[in-house]
Amino acid sequence: MAIMSAQEMFSDAQAITVSAASTNVIDFGSPGTWVGSTIAITDDKGNSAICLGIQVTEAFATLTSLAIAVQKDDNAAFASATTIYTETILQAALIVGKKTAVRVIPYSADEPYLRIYYTVNGSSATTGKITAGIMELENPWGNR
């Protein structure tokens, strides 16, 4: 069983019928400075023990596929979002219980804000929900 914290959730049974950002954005904050220094610490959450777990909680219907993109930005409004990871799942696999995971956040996660952006491909989905969040590293969900 995976452990997820409510404070580290991107989506909690979020309905995805059209392309949309995750309900929640995670703010990792900005790095400070070393004691006695004025030089900022280089921020990089990548290749750490941070794993993102994503699970279908309601089956998807009528779309062709769903693209799941992890995005970073320097502001919570995601005015200049950059995608650092993406995966596309075909509709036939988007059944209740389908799990996927990003085992480590890529090295390029060097900005304070992260979100997930879901892109519905083909027709709009008539049903479909996702739960996604940061989880423990060792998990049965697979590796990316």
- Give the helices and strands as they follow along the chain: EEEEEEE
Helix-and-strand structural type = mainly beta
Fill in the CATH topology. Jelly Rolls
Quaternary class: single chain
CATH class: Mainly Beta
List the total number of helices.
Answer: 0
Quick rundown:
This protein is 0% helix and 52% strand. The chain is mainly β. The chain has a single domain (4-30, 43-135), classed as Jelly Rolls (Sandwich), CATH 2.60.120.1110.
What does this structure look like?
Helix content is 0%, strand content 52%. It is mostly beta strands. It has a single domain (4-30, 43-135), classed as Jelly Rolls, CATH 2.60.120.1110. Strands 1, 2, 3, 4, 5, 6 and 7 form a 7-stranded antiparallel beta sheet that branches. A hairpin with an 8-residue loop joins strand 4 and strand 5. It is elongated, with a radius of gyration of 16 Å. The protein starts with a strand and ends in a 9-residue tail after the last strand. The mean pLDDT is 85.
